[in-house]
């Protein structure tokens, strides 16, 4: 780079020219900065040429600026220039000696030179244009401007006045701004209503017209309206509110002691008798398992906690806790023990052996809580504790399953499946009529949910869910001896299938009345007439009922708030029969040679839901079929509904009130006809004819 004086520069300022409006300026000197020194001077341009003087390492004029620099890395300097005088505007109450006499406080040109061996290497030109600072006369207050409700009034006569007791820049209507300050931005005022420039009074206002040019209609048709009622009413209000969001913080939250509620509400933690949280292990948000997680009222959950076992776990704590019921009393947790049949749901083995195998008895693998509630409290708590005997020959991963379900009512009640129609994925409600009490007892309509071995003897049951077609099955071990007793085998298989559906009645709605048979329909069974031999021949048994099919027919009976109300019309159970035949294998495990060897035969169950269409419209009359011009569904004009409020189809109010109002209207019509002009003319003509 070549300067005006011909000096070759190996350093440069970035930026080399700055237009400054504040008291602090900074720039970088980049290049070979070893042995560099700085000088600053206030310069003025030549009147003849308009150029500034050449760079000089000797200050020409002692400035009111301070210069400092800092080495950044190896090849750069950070150069800072700061003003060392006050920018306060002089006034009557100002006591600062070097205050600004005019609003434009400082306007000058600075030249910063980078020198090496008294030779200038680079120059920085700074053009300053700084206004005086405005300070409030009164101490700064923390009070905020009270903005009125914008639904009913505009944002004042000066909406841009948002600072209390201070002058807002470019807000020319701000009463806190002095004339000296307003002169600084007199040509840059905020435009429009926000800057206080409201539209003039409309000509239709009574106060807008003078007595000289009033139109003829003005005294009668002008509008008298207060000044607050203007076109900008609610201009800055759109009906929405913004709630501040808490900013993230790295501070540890302050934990307060738990306060047991008087009555439980949804989401409230449940407390024990000792004012401690009632806890059940649950999964946390980080994928971990929290052993002491509080149970929230009316919040169902299921969780799984995986733990690696290398030795027998410690015995579990006593589950029979006293829990506050939220109604002023205490309920005790009732425990029901159950042994696990299939451990493959809970254990996964490892290939790493253990030197000494261990046998662990009664290891808890699952806890299923059922909490019964009524209103704002608990009525009972039961837990099904599933245990298993585990032999540790190698480290295993134990998956413990936890669940909590809240059921409304007492211990014998079950949740409904809708109100009043069935909801999809809710259990189909079955029942059995108790002849002694004539009350319907709830019974099950289930499907199989087989376990790990797939046997029907170890398979669990799951309820048939409304609207969900599904099929499930399991296997039954059968030997050649069983096949030879074919009739007995048929009865055994049919009894296994019959255990799925113990109900004889099914509820038509999702919330039935267990004391009224009107809400229930009988479950019909489709029987097949077949004559089969009582005993099997050559290892074969025919007509074995191997499939149970449940067919549910439903219909939509209207809608409630747009939600279709589906009810059950009928339920039919049918059996599908097949032939079982023992397969003889060549080898040691030949069931034909050894009649006691078992073979597995599948049995299945399924449920199908069919929705029947229902035509709720009344049949069309022959008149509406033949005379389509009088059909209200096809024409905009409906003459048959001329007296619609007097018909039975009008349901806006009771029929008696509608009829009474209609008769009153007829009475007024007759009275108007009698007292009106036509009747008066008829009486005059009659009187003239008599005379």
From TrEMBL:
Membrane spanning stretches: 658-676
Pfam family, one: DUF1619_N
One Gene Ontology cellular component: MKS complex
GO BP of this protein: cilium assembly; protein localization to ciliary transition zone; smoothened signaling pathway
Domain of life, source organism: Eukaryota
Swiss-Prot/TrEMBL keywords: Cilium biogenesis/degradation, Glycoprotein, Membrane, Signal, Transmembrane, Transmembrane helix
Residue span, Tectonic-1-3 domain: 263-392, 438-579
Domain Tectonic-1-3 N-terminal: 140-241
Assembly mode: Part of the tectonic-like complex (also named B9 complex).
Family to which the UniProt record says this protein belongs: Belongs to the tectonic family.
Designated name of the protein: Tectonic family member 2
Source lineage: Eukaryota, Metazoa, Chordata, Craniata, Vertebrata
